[in-house]
Every structure is written in structure tokens, then in C-alpha cells.
Amino acid sequence: MSHPRISAFASSANGNANPVRILEGQATLQARTSHDIGIDSINDEIVVPNPFAQAILFFRGGASGQEPPIRIIQGPKTLLNYNENVAVDPIHNEVFTAQFRSDAILVFRRDAGGDVAPIRIIQGPKTQLDRPLRIAVDPVNNLIAVTTIPGVWIFNRTDNGDVAPRWTLAGPKTGLGVLNGSRNVVLYPGGKKIIVGGGRSVGSEEELPPGTATRPFIGVWNYGDNGDIGPWATLTIPQTNKGTSPAMAINPEAKELIMSGAGLKGIFFFHLPEIFQ
Amino acid sequence: MGRRSPGSSKRSVILVLGFLVVGGGSLVLTRIGGEVETVPVRKPTSHPQLISIHPLPEMEGEMCEWVPVSGEASLLAALQQPGAPRSAIPSDAARADAAKRAPIRTMRDSYSSYSAVAVDAVRNEVVMTDENLFGILVYDRMENTPATARMSEPKRMIRGLKTEIEFQCSLYVDPSNGDIYAVNNDTLGKLVIFSRQARGDVDPDRFINTPHTTFGIAVDEKNQEMLLTVQDDAAVVTYAKGAKEKEPPVRLLQGERTLLADPHGIALDSKRDLLYISNWGTVNVHKAPPGGPTTGTLGRGGGHPNWPIGRNYAVPGSGKVLPPSITVYPRDARGDTPPSRIIRGPKTQLNWPTALALNPETGELFVANDTAHSVLVFGPDAMGDVAPIRVLQGPRTLLKNPTGVFYDQKNGELWVANFGNHTATVYKPTAAGDTLPLRVIRSGPLHAPSPMLGNPHVVTYDSKREEILVAN
Question: Which site from A157, B203, B267, B414 is most exposed, i.e. has the minimal number of CB atoms within 10 Å?
Fold first, then answer.
């Protein structure tokens, strides 16, 4: 099953660890397929998508137990549709979500609540958005990164309407694209790095036709990499099941890349100072 | 996979320095397709370009490797990208050396976590799905793990890539032959069926392609049908019990009037011809196009009759959060049929009601109430905002995030799978309050941490609290 609870562990957790807090239960309004968690360290909030409710939930940063959200974006004006991803920009007070169904990126005010329209929508033929799946924002260098069927598209943070991506990472040398298992993308503003998974086929799902079956990996690219270009460095991933797809986070202070993902059955911590230079 | 050798750190440093010396000039030697070529490189800039390879401590467990990129995606290819400012590119040698790198630590639960339970009363066995390590575990029904024991060993296990077992959230054991029906909730989109002889890493004896996110299973032996809840599409699909592979459902219950909303558990009252469904409550509207849907969620079920209208036909902005509920229908309800009864409201204590079981003699309904750490029991005519007739809850019960429940009619026992503490616990069906279990089967040491990382699909870092947040 998919247990939509959010569990928080000490950053030094190792082995079989108990969470230090859990956010779960009916009052939290969570549901399965929340494939992102946004952390807003400035305003001390946790941002969680709920694709069944077509909602974005905002919790206190220290929320635990059966604590309800403090704010919800939801309703017909929002245009939200199966939003299982979210990225928060606490500096410019904005929340981003990629819309797989409508080939769009919706941007909301971070402090909005209720049935509100997006303040910007990136959508149209120039965007080349093809079923965008996950999104990341770099509020320092003013970029957003989106995983799409062909690869990873990088836009300017303030882009609006039908605009071309600033850079694209796509093609056989990249190993990227949703068909190759790219889901989660992470931006590291300090080192100007793009971290994204790729490499595997999604199999025979008709909506996402088969790609080239390869071993799953996490690749690191530099800002400015553009086109069919190989990764700056690669980390291979254990194939523990037939649906392995990595999710990543970074802890710049500890110079750690943290990896998880469906079927990986654990959280892996890698010390990778190269990324954080 | 492998273990980092003590000498590898030293070698790493030497190799990286070598790169720096050569890279500080104008040429790097690289080998591509067996040929050694000279490649122009960028001049040093004011930007940091050192690749620091740090020694890492010895560790145990699974390792992931840094590997050099393929020949196609080599340093040469990377450098030849026009206009691609690639600073700090490590050499192939450095990357090859870094391939020895391993995670400095891994957080995982090394013990099975029971997510569903069913009893084979004919053969005196109890079967559990394990959603942590992906398997099916079979024990003697009377197994009772001593408090001093580390765990109980199962009589047999079905586990491995061939089994197509991943996120098994419910199961059914056929009383006639002991076949095990196990529901994949995510990733694989199929229900797998194993004979009683199956053990180890074996192919399923039969499978049925199902909609994405099936959760609960109930089998109607009288009518030879199999009913499954579908979370994503807020639906119930019914298959012929003997269906296989691409055979389509024979019946579909779906639509706004059904009040199905993230349906989980399912139970049949064959005596009264009723169908019970537990709903967590969040839902959006799926509306078929004028010509009818061509495929279901994730492109599955193309052209199949009775396939749920998928998320590809979701109406934007139609999402709702409803209270948790148990909805009751005629056994053979189809289409957009409203429930004949609803159990819903604060008195019910429903809190992520995850699995259902029914006592056919009394009509009592048992609810595995995940996040209240309780089992609720409702009477056969319960309706509206009604309190349970019994509540099993408290520290002595050992209930912790119960996600599976089974009523053993032959032996008069109630079984619970506790996803939150590596146990399956057994009670009298009349048990209430803070009651000790009759027996306990444990898959891990007493009080072993249970991180409940069933499907850790996302991870993020909270720098303020220095915490890792994981959602499933």
C-alpha cells in the first residue's frame, strides 16, 4: 500500500530508526501519491500535494501527530489536476507545481489559501512541456527545473505564458526523461548543480511507452549544460524491484546526497563533497 | 555492490591529483572505443575546479557505486558540447575510482512488516503480506512468538523479483485449495495468485492485470467473483474469480453518487448480500468523454469493458475532502449507484479506516482503523453518525497502525496485521478495550524500531530541524 504519512527522522538516523515525529491521520487531509514535500525554512512550513483532493496543503514546520493543515489551496479556479508534486520558493513567496495532464506549470502565491487562480502559468507549444512530472525551484539563481517525457527542462523562475525553456537536458547521452525513470529533480543553488535520476525503462505502461531499459542512476549536471550531454557524474542505484525510481534530497551542510524511492526500501546517505563545492 | 577497501581512499587522492596536474595544462588523455585521444580542455578559471575525494568510513550493507559515464557520455563528448560551460569535470579515472564510493549510512527496516493477514482454516495456517521487504509469509496458525524470542520464522516465504510481489496490501486465501491471491497496490498493476506449493522466488501461477492502485480484495465464493477497490479511480471492479491476464472486469461501481472516496477496505456479507467499503475521503471527479474512455489510469485497460474511468479524465479543480466513511451497497451494485447506508461522522471514530472483515453469523463489521491504532466493531445495521459497538484499543492490545484485519469463522478468532510494530495479533472476536492478544506473531525483535517506510517515494531535508522527511 502507499502509506501517505510523513515521517521525520534525525538527519543522523542510521539502520532501523524510529521517526522523531509522524504527521498522519484523517485530520491531516493527506492521501496517497504525494510525491513531493516542500520545505519552507524561512516561514517554517511544510508543503504537501494531495492529488486526489487536487489540493496543496500547508502545515506548520514542526507539525506532528494528527495536526490539520494551516492553509489549503483547492478549488476550480486553481486548475489543479492530479498535482502530486510541489516546490516552494520561500524568498519570493511562491509555490510551483507541474501539471502532467495539462502540460503546464502553475505558480501560486505561497500565502494563498482557498480557491485561488495561479498567478502565472507556463504553458504552450514553445515550452515543449510534455507531461511534466516533478519540479524544483532555485530562488537564488532564479531557475526552475522540470522533468518531462523527453528530459529535464530549465526555465527562468519568473517565466510566464508560452516561453521556451532556457536550457534542456534530453537525448540518449543524458539517459534522462520520464520514460527513462526521471522523476524527482533537485537544484543546488550554491554549486549550481542539477541532480536528477534516469536510466531505466518504465516498462509496458501504454501511457508512457517503453523506453530503453538500462540500469537506474542519479546523474549530476552543471547549470548551463544544454542539449544531449552526458552527466558530470553518475551514481548507480540498486535495482531492488521492478519499479525502482530514485528520489533525492540534499543536505549541503553535511555535503550529503540523500536518496530514496519507490521500491528502494530505505534511505541512503552519500557523502559527496564534489557536488557542494 | 561491495565494500570499500581501506586503501581506496589513498588511491582516490592520487588519481585526482593526477588529473589536476594534467588538467592544468591544455590536454587530457582519454580512452574512447579503445583509442587514446588528445582532447582540448578548458583553461583553469577562478572557479573552483578541484574534485575532492574524501575517505569514507567502513560500512555494512548494500552499497551504491559511483561509476564513470558510458563511452557515449564520456568526458570527450561532454567537452565537445558547443557552448556548454562544464566546470570541474572530473577525469574518467577519478570517476572510476570514485566508483568505490558507498553510502555512509542506510536507514532501513530489516524486518518484515505485516500489512495484511488471512487465515487458511482448512490447513491451519496464517498468511501475511510483508510490504517492507516485499513478500508473502506463511506461519502455523497457532504460532505464538515467545517474548524472549527474536522473531518467529515462517513455514514458507514467497519473495523475489520473479514473484511480481511489491506493494501487497491485501490478500485472500482460497479455502478450497489454499491458493493465495495477493493485491499489488502500486508499480506492477497486477494481482498475483500462487498455489499452496509456491515458495521462494517463483513466478505466480496466475495473474490478472488490474487497474492502478487496487487495494482491498473480497472473494464471493458463492458467485465465483472477486471484488477489488481502486483508490485512484474511486471505484470497485469485479472479476470472475478464475480470471487471468488481460481478462476484463465483469462489473464496475464508480461515479459521484457512489460516494466512493479513496476506497480501501472491502468486505462481503454473503448472507445479507451486502458489500461494505471503507473510504478515507479524498476524491475528484472522473468524467468520461462523449465517445467513452479509451484507456484508464496509466494507460491501462484500453478497450476493456467495465474498466474505471481513469485519472486521465479527471476534472481539474473538482477535488474534495469528505469525511471518512463506510459505504454499504447491494452485493452486485454497478454503475453510479448510491450507497444504501453510510456509516460516517465523529462518533464513528473512523480514522484512515484501512481494512474490513465481517462476521457472517452476526453481521458485525471489523475495521482496521490505522491511525487511531484501534479496531472498531459496528453492528449489522449501523448507519449514520453511530458509535462502534466495541472498540479494541490501548497499549496492552499491541495494536499499532493496524492495516489488515481477518475474521476466522471456524476458530472464532480475530486477526490483525500491525504495520507499525512487526506484529500480527490474535483476539477473541468479542474483545474490547485494552485487551491483551491471545497470541502474537512477531517478525522482528520486541520493540525494534519500525520506520514504516513501505513506499518511500519522496525524501526531503529540513535544515531548520536537521531532519529527514519521508512520505510514502
Answer: B203
